[in-house]
Amino acid sequence: MGNSYAGQLRTTRFEEVLHNSIEASLRSNTVVPRPVFSQLYLESEQLLAHDGRTENDDEDDEDGSESNSPPIPYQMKPPPEGCCTTDGLCQAGRDLRLSSLASDPLDVPPGFMLVGVKSPSIPENLLVCAVDRRFLPDERGHNALLGFSGNCVGCGEKGFRYFTEFSNHINLKLSTQPKKQKHLKYHLYRNNQGVLVKGAPICWRGYDGRTRQMGSSLSEGHVTSDEHPPNMALTHPSQTPGSYTAGSGSHVDQIGLPQIADVPHSLTNGNHAVPSVTQPQPQSGPGRPSATGTHTNTGPPKKRHKGWSPESSANSLPESTGKTPPSSSVLTTLSVPSVITTGARSETAAPLSSSQGSVTPLAPPGLSVTIPDQLLHTCRLQPVIFKGHGPLPQLTGNVSEVLVSSLLQSCYLSSQTLPRVYQHYGPSPIQPLSTEMQILLTVYYLVQLGPDQVPLIEDLEQIFMRSWRESHLSEIRQYQQPQTPATQGRHYGIDTPSTLPGLPQHLSLPPQSHQPLTPSQLPWLAQLAASSCGEGVVVLGEHIGSLAQGIQQTFSRLMEGRLDNTNYVVIIVTAPGQETQSCVVVTGKHQCRALAESMFSPNEGLKEINHQLSTGVAQELIHYCNSLGQDGDMDSLLDSATVDSSEPSPLSSSQESSEERSLKTTHSPKDSQTQCPKDSPSPKERASSPKDTCSEYSVEWREVRPIQLAVARKLLSHVCAIADSSTQNLDLGSFDRVSFLILVPPSEVTFQQTVRHLWSSGVLQELGSLDQDCVSQREAERYVVKMDQCAHARIDSLIQEAYSNSYTLYILVHDHAHCDINSASCSSSDSGLGLVDQLLNSRQVRDSPNILILHVTSFPFALQTQYTRISPYNEIHWPSAFSNDVDLYHERTRYFGVSELLESTRSGSSLPLMRYDSSFESMASALEERFPKLHSAVIRTTVLIQHYCIALMAASGRISGSQNLHKHSSVETLEIVQSLLNAAQQCPAHHGHMVLLRIPSLALAAWAHRRLSRVRRQLGLEESFEIILGNPNQALNIGQSFTDQIKTWLKIQDADWVPQSYLELEALPCILILSGAEPLGESLPRSLKYCDLRVINCSYLQRTTLEQELGLAAYLVRAESRPPHNPGPGSDLLESDAEKLSSTDNEEEEGQENGDSPLSSSQQLQSCPDSGALDPFPTQSTASPNVQKGTMDTIQNPSQSQTQLQPQPPSQSFPYPQPPLHHQTQPQVQSYSQAQTTSQLQPQPQIHSQNQLLSQTNSYPQPHPPAQSHRQHSKSTSSGSLSPRASSPHLSCSWARGVSRPPSVLLPRALYEIITASDSSGLPRCTSFLPHMSVAWASSFRPLLSKMMTCTEQSLYYRQWTIPRSYHMDSSNRTEGRSDNFHPRRLLLSGPPQVGKTGAYLHFLGILSRMLIRLMEVDIYDEEDINYSAQAEGVQYHPPNTSWPNPDIMKTIPFDYTIHDPKYDDISSVYSPGYKPSAEGTAVRQEDVYLRRRTSRIKLSKYAAYNTYHHCEQCHQYLGFNPRYQMYESTLHAFTFTHLLLGEEIQLYFIIPKSKEHYFSFSQPGGQLESMRLPLTSDWSPDCIKSPIFTPTTGRHEHGLFNLYHAMDGASHLHILVVKEYEMAVYKKYWPNHIMLVLPTVFNGAGIGAAHFLIKELSYHNLELERSRRVEGGGPAGDVWPFIILADDSCVMWNAVDLDARNGPVEHAVSLKQVLQHMEACPDLAHHGLCGIRKWSSRGLTGNKQREPFSRGHLHDFLLLNVDRSQNIQYDQNRFTCHDVDFTLRLHSAGLLVCRFNSFSVMKKQIAIGGYRTFIIKTKMTDVPTSVGPSQYVCAPDSKHLFLATPAQLLLEKYLQHTSQKLFPLSTKNYTHPVLSVDCYLNLGHEVTVCFVSSRPHSVNISTTGLLFSGLLLCFADSFVTPGFLKKFSFLKGATLCVISADRSSLRQTVGRLELEEEWRFRLSDEFQTANAKEDRPLFFLTGKHI
Alpha helices of 1362-1396 — where are they, by DSSP H? Predict the structure, then answer.
C-alpha cells in the first residue's frame, strides 16, 4: 500500500477507517462516503479539526437562563404576507398542538419520527412535527447528524432543510437563534389506547443530566430493560461513592420511580424500536430536569466559564438538585470515582457482586443461566464474569464456582462520565466513547495481553482515555489553551500520551470520527481483532441473542474442553433496536486465580489462607512438595543426615514432635549448643580469642547527616511560617518549652527501634527531660507510643497536659502515617483500626492551640486527597541530595531506593539488583494448576520454603548425593543459601549477612519458621545462622548464643541486654521471616543482602502497597570514593523546589556511557558462594590494573570503574533472559513513591543501621576500608568468570564488603513485569496505579503523572484527582461553605523509605526547642563601665536605700566628666582634674561595633519590649493586627512651628491612629491638630505614665522594640515613633497602631542629633501650647507636666536593684511602668534638667561606685528630660555621633542638675540591623559603597577631588575622629595637655583628650588655671566667644588651632573677629573643606600653629 501500514491490514487504523466508511454508507442515502484510503492518509489533525466543527451550532442552554450576559437579540424573518401567525398553528393555519392531534392519524414517512417541540409562547403544550431520525441523537445522546430534515404534520409540507426555516413555519416566535437541540424536546409515541402522548426527553449529546431511557416491565417487580443505562447510578444511588454495582437496576422502585404498566415504543416507521420509559422528572427551575448523584454534567456547556476550577473533575455536583427522593441524597456529596483498581473492593459497605452472584441484576424468567455441576472440578478453574454493558442474567446452580466482578462495568461508566471542564466552553462536539467503541477497545486490550498477564483496569482506563483524547484532540487542545497559564502545575492539562501502557505501538487506537461504530459492525470488527491471537480471545457476537445465551454457551465449551487455550471470552449482543450489551468471561487459569484473589480484601485473603492452613487443605500440597521424585523424600534424606552426622543429635530419634521441639531449640541456649559441629568452636570460644576479631567491623552511632539537618531546618521554617502568618494559629512567642509524643504503628520492633533512636539522639537531654548522664532507655519509652488500644490513655493524658500547660508546645509526631488512615466511625473497636482518626482528628487535639501534629511517611498519597486536612503549604518533601551530580549537602552517602532498583534492571553490564526467579515461577505455576482451590500464597510459600530447605541440604554437604538436589531448588535460592552459610565462615569474627524472607501471612510465616528451624536442626547448622520470626505483635526473640555473639561484637557488658530491633542484628548471619499484612516501619540492618519478596501478594496493585514492599530494600550507601562528576543512579535534577519527584524517573537523565551501569555497583553476581558477587567497589588504592582497564570511564572514577569488571558472561545461574536495558543515570533519590517517605529518619546511624542503613545509597557506595576482597573460586555450580583482583588479606569479611552494596531483591514475575514497565510518561507503571486502597480516582479523565513533576506537583496532582472512600478518615473532612478544611497546625514530612526521616524529625524537635529558648532570649550588651580610676571615692552622699535624690545633696556631688559607657570606648576622653587614666589605655576598636562588643544571652522577662515578630493574645489589640477588627485607620496631621535656629517654619506630620486621637487636641473633631495633651504635675494614676515617650528610629521597622505593652504592664502611655519621611510607609505598615512623628524632608539624611533636636523643640513648643490651652480653660499655666522620655529603640528590659538581699545587692527585672512611675514620683524632679538610669552589666553591682544610689555624669540611651528647664540648651541638629555627650556637657555647664538613678538599669538588645550609626560613606559617582579612607574625607578648597555623597558634618566628624593625631600631634596620648574645645564636644579619637569649656556667662566650667593646652578647637564659634575669653587660656608652643565654619567667608570673619592671627600662625595650605560638592554645602576648616 506504499505506507507504513503495508501488510498489516488488521491494524486498528485500517479497520477503523474501513468501518467508518461502511457505516457512513449505511446511514446516509444522500451523503457520499469519503473513500477509505483517502481517509487513511489524511492527517489526523485535519480529520479532527473537521470533527471540531460538528456541533458548533449546538447551543442548548435553556432560555439563556443561566447565562450572565443578556441573550443576543434575534430578529426573526418577517412572516410572508397573509400567512397565519397564531401560536400553536403553522403558517398554513393548521393546528400542531399535541392536545389537538393526540387522536388524529398522522402520516409519518419512513425513517421519520414524531417529536414534540416546545414553544416559549405556549409552554403548557407541545407542537408536533416529524423529523428525520438521522438528525436526532440515539438514546445515549450520540450519532445525531448535523443539520435538519423535517416535515410539518399540520399542512403536510415536506423537506424543510433548516431548523430556522422550520421554526418560522411553525410559528415558534423565538427571541434567540433557533436551535434544534433547544426546541426539539421529547419523543412522542402512541400508548395502548392509540393516543399520542409525550415520551422520554430527547437526549441531546447525553449531556444535560437527564436520566437515560429505561425500558421497564413489571414482571416480578423488577426493571428488566434491555439495555443497561451507562449512568444508571443516577436513578439508583448506592450508599458508597465507589460502587456502581447498584446501577444494575434491580431495585429501582425503592426510590419511587413510577412503575409503567406497558412498555411503549417510540413512533418510528422502521424496525428499530427504542424502548423508553416515561419518567416524570422533578423540575427544578424553568424546565430543567435535575439530576441526582453521580452524573455530574448538570447542563449544557456554559460559554462564560473560562477557567478550570479545582472541582472540574467528576466529583462536582449538579447545580440544581430538585426534589430528589430522600435516599438519593446520599449521592449528592459523592463523585464518580473510577471505582477501583484491580483488587481493592470499591467499598466494604458496597453491595459488590460477590462470588455468590447474589446481587447480580435479575433478568426476566427464562433468561437465567445454570452453572454446570462440577465446573471447578472439571475445568480446574473458577471462571470470573466481568459485567459490561447491560444487566447480567441471573446465575443459578452451583453459583459458588463462578465469580462476578463489576470492575469492568465501573471502568466503562467512569469513562463515559465527561469531566465538567468540557462544559465550560460553549457548545462542543466532545462526547464520551460509545458503548461499541468501549467494547472494541476492550477486545484490542485483551488480545495484546501476554498469556500470563492479568488484565489491569488502570491500563484499560488509560486506553479509553487515549482513544477519547485522540478522537477529540483539537477540541481538547482548544480547551487547554486558555487554562494553561492559570493552572497550578504542568500536570493539569490533559495530555495525549504517545503510547499506552498495555498497547503495542503497532496497534494504534481508532479515533472516533463522524460516523461512529454501529452495533451491527461491532461483532465482526471484534472478531477480526481477536483473530490475531489465535484462540487466546474468543468473541461470541454473531448469532447470540442475549447475554444469557452467550454465557451458557461459554460454560458448555468450558466443560467440553474447547476453551483450554482461551483466556477470555467476550460476549457481545447487538439485537436491532436494543442497547448493545456485553460481558467478558475470564477462562484462563492463571487469570482466573489472580482475579479471584484480588477480589478479596487483604484481610479476607489472610483469613482464607489461615482457614486453608487450619483445616489441613494444604497438607496434600506439602506432602507433594516433600517428594523429590527419584531422589527420594526430603524427610528421609534429612533423617539420614542426622544419623550420619559425626556427632549424632540426641534429639533425632523422636521424630513425632520434631517441629515443636525445633521451636524450642531455636530459642534455648542449652539445645542450640548441642548441635555445633566439631570443627567449629562455639560462639563464645570464637569471640574470645583476640585473633578472631574483624578489623572491618564498625558501627557508628549518633550522627546527624547534613541532609537531615537541612530537613529539620525546613520543618522549623514551616513551623515559623505558621507562626508568622496573620492567622494567629500558632503563637511561638508564648511557648517556653517543647514536649512531644511519637506515635508508631503497632509493631514492637518499630517501637523499640524508635525508642533507641530517640534515646541515642540526645533530644531528651536537650529538651531537659532527662539528666545528661541518664543511661536507661526506659526513660525514652515514655515519649513513644504504639498505636494500639493503650494509645488512648497516653494521648488523653497529653491532651490534658496540653490544656493545663499553655506555655508548652506539644508536638505529636505521627510516624508511618500511612499505616492507619481508617475512619473511626467505620472501624470496629477491636480491629485496632481508626485509632489515628479517633485520637489525632479529635476536636480536643484540633482545637488545642499548643498541639502541633507532624505526620511522617514515605507514602503520603493517601493523605493528599481532595478532602485532606494538610495544607499543601505545610508539606515538606525530602530534598534531592544530588543535582546534576553535585552533592548539594556534602553527604558521604547516597540513597538507593526504588528508582535505583528499577534502574538496575535497565543497566546492562551486570546482574540487576531487582529480578525474578523464573525456575521458581514455573514450579509455582505448575502447582497452582494442580491445586486450583488453594490460595496462591499457600502454594508459593510452600514451594519457596521447600527450595530453601533443599538448598540448605545441598549447601551443608551433610546429605550424600547432594549434587542431585540442586535441580529441586532454583539457582537464586541456592545462591542465597550458599552465600549465607559461607559468609560467616570467611570472617574471623563470624560476621555474616541477613536474608529477608517476606511472608505476609502470620500463619504461613510461623509454618515456614518451624519448617526451616527443623531442617536447620537436622542438618546441625544451629550455630551457623539464626532463623527469626518477625511478628509485628511480638518482641524480637533470638537464641542466647547469637545474643552473646552480638554483645561481643558491640562490646556490651550488660548481662541482661538483648537485641530489640532488627537494626541491632547488624552482621548476624540470619534468615528473617518478616510477617504482617504490611511492613510497619521496621528498619533493617546494613548487613541485609537479599530481600526475598517472591511470595508477596500480586493482587493489590496500589502504589503504596508496592512501594512499601520494595522499600524494605532501600539503603544508604557510602559514597566517598565516588568522583563527583559522574552521576549515578541516585542523583537527581535540581528542581525549582529542590526536590524532584520521587518518581523514579528514569528517563530523563543524561544517559551514562554504555559502560557504566549505575547500578552495576551492586549487582551480586551469583558466582561465588561467599558473597555471590564480585565486589563492585574496590577502592582506588588497591584496584588492579585489569580492573582499571576494563572500565569505560576515566580512571579517576574508581568506584565506577569497577562496576564494570568485565561484563560477565551469563552463567548457568541465570536461566532467565535479562531484560534489555538502557541506562540512565539518575533515578531520583526519592522513591518513586514520591519520594516521600515516612521512614525512619534515623538520625543516628546509630543504629548503625538506620542511617547507615538507610544509608545505603545507590550508587557508589564505597567499600568499607581500603581493601579489596580476596576471592576464592568456589565449588559452586554457578561460577562465572572472575576478573583477577588485587588480593588483600583483610577484606575477607563478607559483611564489610556488603555494607557498601545495596541488597538484591527477588520479586514475583507478575509484579516484576508490572514494576519494570513504563507508562507513556516514562514513569514506572506502578506510579499510575491508584495510590492507596482507601482512596478513589475522582475521574477517569485525569492526566498521567508526569516524569518531570516535583514532589510538590505530585502532591497537587493527588489533591486534585483523588478522593477518600467512605472508610478513609478524611472522608468526613468537608464542611459546607468552607473552601478548605486544612488543619492549621498539621505538617506532613515525606521522604523515601529508610532515608533518615526519624533522625531529621528528632533533630527538628531539638532545634525547635532551642529556637523557643532562643525566642525567649536576647543578646544583651554586657560590658563593664570604662574609665574608672583606680582609687575609689570614699564619700557616700545619699544613704544606699534612698528612694529619690535630694537636689541640695546632688549639687554637692561633683559632676563626673569622664565617659563610662562602653560603647564610647573609642572616643576622646573629657578632661577632668582629678582623673588619672589607666596606663594601658583601651584597645582601639573598629567601626563594626555590633560584631565586636561583648553580649550575654538573657531570657526575656515578662516585662520585655518586643519587635514586630512577637504575637500574643494580649498584644493583638495593642498592635492593631487583630483579624477580627479592621486594620486600624490612621489620619495624617500637619503641625507647624517656628524655630530661630532653623530660621524658617518647620512642618512636621503626625500619623495618629483613630484609637490614639484622645491624646491630642483638635480645633474640632477631625479638624486641625492643635497640640498633644499633657497631664498636670499634680495628676497621678496607678495605671498611667505621664511623660510622652519618644523613640527616634531608622531602618528598624521590623527589629525596633516598639511593642511596650508588656513592658508597661498594661499602663496607658503615649508612645511616639520618630521616623524619617522616606520610611514613613514601612513603619506604618508594621506598626499600624502607633503614633508616628514624621521628620521634615530636609532631615532625611540627618543624624540622631536632628531627631533629638526636633523632639525637644517640638515638646517645648507643645508645652507652651498646652499652658496657654490650660490658661484659656482657667487653670494654672505652670502646672503642666514638662518631662518627656527619649528612649533608644533597642531598650529591651529594665531592672531594679534589691538592696535587701542577703548576699549583697541583687538586680531583678521590673516593668518600665515601675521605673517611670518611681522617677515621675520624685518630689523634687522639677529641679532636675535631665535624669537617666544605668546601663546594665552582669558585673555592674561590684565596686564602691555602685553604692551611691544617685550620681551626676553622662547619661545615654534612656533619658527623662525636663523640656522646661532645658529650654535654652538645644541638641545640635547637625550631629551624627556623640551628640548625647555634647548635650550633657552643655546642660551641666548651664547649671542644670543631671541625675542618674543607679538603682535602675536598662538592658540594651544587640540589633545588627539599622540604627543611626549605620551611615555608609560612598562616592558621588556611584551608589555602590566604595572604600574611601578618612584622609579623603577632606580636601583643599577648589581642588579637583573625588566628591562624596555623604553629609558634610558626618565627614568632618569622621575625619576628626580618625586623623586627629596628625591634626593635633602634641595632644596624642597626652592627658595632661588636652585640646581646648569651646562650647561643643567633638570626638578627636581615643588618643586625644578634650577639655570642654562653655563661653556662656555664668556657666559652670572646670578650673583651667595652670593648664597648658595642646590645641584649640573652635566649631561654629558664636558671639559669646570673644578674644578676651580666649586669652584666659594658655597653650603649648606649637599647639594646633582648628577653626570650623560653614563657609570660607565666615571662616575668615571668625579669624579676624577673634584676633587669632596675633597668637597663631596660618598658611594658605592649611585651609580645608569636607569632600562635598558645592550644592551639598561643604564645611570649611582652617588649621594653624601657636607661635
Answer: none
The C-alpha atoms of residue 1285 and residue 1488 are separated, in whole angstroms, by: 61
Burial 117-140 (b: 16+ CB within 10 A, else e): bbbeeeeebbbbbbbbbbbbbbbb
The three cell numbers of residue 1769 are 540648651
pTM recorded for the entire structure: 0.64
Cell 564619700 appears where? 1435
The three grid cell numbers given for residue 1817, joined into one nine-digit string: 560613606
User: What sign does the CA torsion over 1786, 1788, 1791, 1795 have?
Assistant: positive
Question: Cell for 1105?
Answer: 502497597
Residue 1936 CA to residue 949 CA, distance in Å, equals 106
pLDDT (mean) for 1472-1476: 84
Burial 1455-1484 (b: 16+ CB within 10 A, else e): bbbbbbbbbbbbbbbbbbeebeeeeeeeee
**pLDDT 10s digits, 1326-1360:** 888 899 999 999 988 888 888 888 999 999 999 99
Pairing of strands 196-201, 184-190: antiparallel
pLDDT band at residue 293, thresholds of 50, 70 and 90?
very low
Determine which helix (DSSP H) or strand (DSSP E) holds 1200, and give its type and residue range: helix 1198-1203
C-alpha cell at 1669: 490651652
Which among 1262, 1121, 1302, 1283 has a CA at the least distance from the CA of 1188? 1283
Distance CA 1731, CA 22 (A): 106
pLDDT tens digits for range 1211-1221: 333 333 333 33
Q: What is the pLDDT of residues 1075-1114, one digit of tens each?
A: 999 999 999 999 999 999 999 988 778 999 999 999 999 9
Which residues, in sequence order, are bridge partners of residue 537? Answer: 568
Q: How buried is residue 822: exposed, middle or buried, by Cβ count under 10 Å (0-12/13-18/19+)?
A: buried
Cα torsion 1154, 1160, 1164, 1167: sign: positive
602-to-243, 590, 599, 644, 1330 alpha-carbon distances in Å = 18, 19, 9, 45, 16
Per DSSP, the three-state class of 1933 is strand
Q: Beta strand pairing status for 1544-1553 and 568-573? A: unpaired
From 583, 544, 538, select the one nearest 558 (Cα to Cα).
Answer: 538
Within a 10 A sphere around the Cβ of 191, how many other Cβ atoms? 15
Amino acid identity, position 1970 = T
Residues 1193 and 1201: beta-carbon distance below 8 Å: yes
Beta strands in 1049-1177 (DSSP E): 1070-1074, 1088-1092, 1115-1118
Q: What is the CA radius of gyration of the chain?
A: 46
Exposed/middle/buried for residue 382 (C-beta within 10 Å: 0-12, 13-18, 19+):
buried
SS3 string of 531-554? HHHCCCEEEECCCCCCHHHHHHHH
The packing angle between helices 1002-1018 and 634-644, to 10°, is 40
pLDDT at residue number 15 = 53
Handedness of CA 556, 562, 564, 568 (dihedral sign): negative
Angle, in degrees to the nearest 10, between helices 602-614 and 936-956: 60
Q: Which residue, 46, 223, 53, 198, is CA-closest to 126?
A: 198
DSSP 38-87: HHHHS-HHHHHHHHHTTTTT----GGGTT-SSPPPP--PPPPPTT----T
Residue with cell 426546541: 183
The residue behind cell 504461613 is 1004
Q: Which amino acid is at 1935?
A: A
Phi-psi region of 397 (alpha: psi -120 to 50; beta: other; left: phi over 0): left
Q: Is the dihedral of CA 61, 62, 67, 69 positive or negative?
A: positive
**Can you tell me the distance from the alpha carbon of 680 to that of 1700, in angstroms, rounded to the nearest whole number?**
79
